[in-house]
Amino acid sequence: MAIEFQPAVIPHLVVSDAAGAIDFYVKAFGATEMGRVPGPDGRLVHAAVQINGSPVYLNDDFPEACGGKSMTPQALGGSPVTIHLEVDDVDARFQRTVDAGATVIIPLDDQFWGARYGCLADPYGQQWSLGQQVREVSPEEIAAAMGQNA
Question: What is the mean pLDDT of residues 49-65?
Answer without folding.
Answer: 96
